[in-house]
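Input (structure):
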């Protein structure tokens, strides 16, 4: 039973969680009934009326406003993209980086964050990697900044061991040193509170198929609108300040939109945006802080049960430095993944073991079921715990 909301009521909205022990929301969250209903509504409207286009586009803008509220931003700072990777590539290519400039990143962070900037090496941009430790903050990065450093890019929460980096202190460091700051919040959004302004981010990128509960194919991009010098490396009618009414291209009217729409190419993923509207209803009803605290409680219970088995947790243990919902158990994936699958437990293999990732619907019973399956293979409570 959660101390923060009626988790049993929430759980009923996720049929997959009733059929298997689903501990893999860091990969993709199961479909929720309200999210499916929103997609069905869109499909039925298309089937029956060939699509009320103006209504659909109005819903896009309503959802954009709600995404902005989730991030502590304004609606004109939010663009819709395809996924996190596209968002990070848009950001990397919008920064005015030239040969000799340096970007700092965290070693071992998500590869698609790195590739967006490593691709700029063809322009002479250098990417330097800072060691990943359980605690990463401004002091971790300060020694690596020199006159050539122009940007820092990193995740707020790591996918492989649930590190939660101190992005607020790093954002303050970027402001102090006049650096651009690009943050991937894919593993944080929907579970961890995000404040784009407190973070002092230039860009924030994310997908929506984890904490935001939406099927794959929709991404988000926050752009600090005070950074008017940042423009897309591509151009379409949708990204212009003034879209020609007759849709005839005019070489003398190429000014980018003053909003984050400058980074959009048009033709939205409308089913996914409808789904996102429904998922935001669920998240807002529960409250991000409550979802975060519920997941922290689940994590505390997991750590306690693992300690009793003398099974090691990979990554940080302290709430201050760990994500509330991502935990890696030091059990070799090659040896253990099949055992979990055979026993109806859904987890992910990771670099250093088995990743357990919670969603808003998980319960203490799910954790206990996981521990039971570990014990079933012969792992017994240690004498220290007895």
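Output (sequence):
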């Amino acid at each position: 039973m959660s101390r923060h909301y009626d988790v049993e009521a929430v759980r009923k909205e996720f049929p997959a969680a009733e059929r298997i022990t689903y501990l893999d929301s860091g990969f993709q969250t199961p479909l929720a009934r309200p999210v499916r209903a929103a997609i069905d509504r869109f499909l039925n409207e298309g089937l029956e009326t060939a699509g009320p286009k103006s209504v659909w586009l109005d819903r896009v803008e309503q959802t954009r406003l709600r995404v902005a509220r989730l991030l502590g931003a304004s609606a004109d700072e939010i663009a819709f993209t395809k996924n996190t990777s596209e968002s990070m590539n848009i950001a990397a290519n919008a920064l005015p980086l030239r040969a000799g400039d340096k970007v700092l990143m965290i070693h071992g962070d998500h590869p698609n964050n790195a590739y967006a900037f490593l691709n700029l090496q063809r322009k002479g941009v250098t990417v330097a990697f800072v060691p990943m430790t359980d605690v990463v903050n401004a002091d971790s990065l300060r020694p690596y900044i020199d006159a050539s450093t122009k940007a820092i890019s990193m995740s707020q929460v790591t996918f492989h061991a649930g590190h939660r980096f101190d992005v607020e202190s790093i954002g303050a460091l970027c402001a102090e040193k006049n650096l651009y700051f690009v943050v991937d919040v894919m593993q944080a959004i929907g579970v961890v509170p995000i404040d784009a302004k407190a973070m002092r981010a230039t860009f924030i990128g994310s997908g929506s198929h984890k904490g935001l509960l939406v099927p794959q194919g929709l991404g988000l991009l926050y752009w600090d609108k005070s950074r008017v010098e940042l423009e897309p490396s591509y151009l379409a009618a949708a990204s212009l300040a003034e879209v020609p009414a007759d849709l005839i291209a005019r070489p003398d009217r190429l000014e980018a939109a003053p909003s984050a729409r400058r980074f959009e190419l048009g033709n939205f993923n409308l089913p996914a945006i409808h789904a996102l509207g429904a998922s935001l209803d669920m998240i807002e009803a529960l409250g991000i802080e409550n979802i975060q605290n519920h997941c922290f409680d689940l994590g505390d219970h997991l750590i306690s049960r693992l300690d009793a088995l003398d099974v090691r947790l990979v990554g940080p243990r302290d709430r201050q430095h760990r994500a509330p919902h991502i935990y890696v158990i030091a059990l070799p994936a090659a040896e253990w993944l099949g055992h979990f699958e055979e026993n109806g437990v859904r987890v992910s293999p990771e670099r250093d073991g088995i990743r357990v990732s919670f969603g808003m619907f998980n319960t203490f019973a799910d954790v206990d079921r996981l521990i039971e399956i570990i014990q079933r293979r012969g792992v017994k409570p240690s004498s220290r715990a007895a």
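Notes: The CA atoms of residues 4 and 294 lie 6 Å apart. The mean pLDDT is 96.
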